[in-house]
Amino acid sequence: MHLQRFLLRYHPPAIILEYVKSGKVHSKTIDLLDLDSKTNIEAIADEISAKEILVSGSRRSQVLQLLQKLKDRVCRTEDHHFYLFKVTKAHILPLTNVAFNKSGSRFITGSYDRTCKIWDTASGEDLHTLEGHKNVVYAIAFNNPFGDKIATGSFDKTCKLWDAETGKCFHTFRGHTAEIVCLTFNPQSTLVATGSMDRTAKLWDVETGMEVASLTGHTAEIICISFSSDGTRMLTGSFDHTVSIWDVKTFKRMFTLIGHRGEISSAQFSYDGSLVVTGSMDKTCKVWEMDGGKCIATLRDHQDEVLDVAFNCTGHLIVSVSADSTARVYDSRTFECVAVLSGHEGEITRASFNQHGTRIITASGDKTARIWDAFTGKCLQVLEGHTDEIFSCSFNYDGNIVITGSKDNSVRLWR
Predict the structure, then answer these.
(1) Which of 138, 375, 385, 395 could bond 354 through an S-S bridge, CB–CB 3.0 to 4.6 Å?
(2) DSSP 8-class letter at 164
(3) Which DSSP string do the residues of 231-274 spell out, in sequence order?
(4) Are residues 264 and 238 in contact, defined by beta-carbon separation less than 8 angstroms?
(5) CA angle 16, 107, 142 (to 5 degrees)
(6) How far apart are CA 218 and CA 241, in angstroms?
(7) Contacts of 325 (CB under 8 A, 6+ apart)
(8) Residue 60, CB-side half-sphere exposure with 13 Å CA sphere
(9) What is the DSSP annotation of 275-316?
(10) Which residue in 261, 259, 336 sits closest to 293, CA to CA?
(11) Beta partners for 119?
(12) pTM over 0.85
């Protein structure tokens, strides 16, 4: 067994060891989620050299250089000011969702017109129209980070899998008995998971198009679904006030997160899979540890329904947004509210961090999106121009392009 090379992952920070064993190439990831400006990288280099048999003492200086590179990237300040560069009137009938591929070079839009469109971000050109659904296309996703496939979920009770380059339909997944309202790919892009108003979630094989599992147990519609970053666990959030955690290998429910007194609006794993955050119409967020499913914190600061929650890339920060027109940032280790994002004049429906975890974008019913400093809560920029509620917003992977989707039936791209 010998080390072949080092690789770096910037978001969240990690050193990846690529090594050869028995003639086959393997990799091992050393996560550095706590790396920040105060980190003693000399001590970490010593620890890695002592623990990892692949990293001999002679490699310590190389490890130190890599740690310095990661630290410099983590501590880099960003002063990016976004300018509007494209407005796309995407569909005749209302939009339902928008999504980027990883780089932001392409984006997709779903619509009540029963189609999904693939767009070139730089030119604003409509590359393909994905036709075939018989009702509203509501849930859409790229298989990021690969970006070569697209899944669309429809009120016609089916999900379709498409080639992102050609627009060809690979498979139509049939089996749900009511509208599909959420979907996602697993990180390996071997499975598509769908959640439906029929109170079930289903897993589908990307290669064969076959149903792999049907997950039952919720007593109301499933409205959010996501995988842990390693793809071994999946969560489903429901209007029955609960979130279920599933073992993806056995398709068995591991445990149910019970405690909210209203419908679940949003739920997400932390990057390392040790925590789940949930938001609810009961005006609270809850944080749950995944070693048993125990609730370890209830965040009660919002004065109205919590409509979205998200972790940053390291899992150390949580953002929650509410119909009370504020967003709040919490430290997931202390559960302290570290920033209140005030300024919107209508309910905030969506929020997400950039990949660096330093910026937050929020979308609001006041027709604006805002960019915030994740640590201070300072509003850095107001993105204006939409003439109706904004329901979707996100950064691309590099954090230098922003997309906003609105009920005014337009998509705006900012860079």
Answers:
(1) 395
(2) T
(3) SSEEEEEETTS-EEEEETTTTEEEEEE---SS-EEEEEE-TTSS
(4) yes
(5) 50
(6) 9
(7) 342, 344, 345, 346, 347, 348, 364, 366
(8) 13
(9) EEEEEETTS-EEEEETTT--EEEEE---SS-EEEEEE-TTSS
(10) 259
(11) 107, 126
(12) yes
C-alpha span between 235 and 227 (Å, rounded): 6
What six digits make up the tokens of 242?
């609960």
**Identity at 319, one-letter amino acid code:** V
d(CA 298, CA 171): 42
- Secondary structure class of 359 (helix, strand, coil): strand
Tell me which amino acid residue 192 is.
V
pLDDT tens for 98-113 read: 999 999 999 999 999 9
Question: Backbone phi, then psi, for 7, in 5-degree steps?
Answer: -125, 150
- CA–chain centroid gap for 171, Å, is 24
Q: In the structure encoding, which two tokens stand for residue 408, read together?
A: 């005014």
Is 210 buried (19+), middle (13-18) or exposed (0-12) by CB count in 10 A?
exposed
**Residue 187, preceding bond cis, omega within 30 degrees?**
no
- Six-digit token pair at 365? 């019913």
In tens, the pLDDT along 192-224 reads 999 999 999 999 999 999 999 999 999 999 999
Alpha carbon distance 103, 163 (integer Å): 17
In the block, tokens 């919002």 appear at 302
Please state, in angstroms and rounded to a whole number, the distance separating the CA atoms of residues 249 and 16: 25
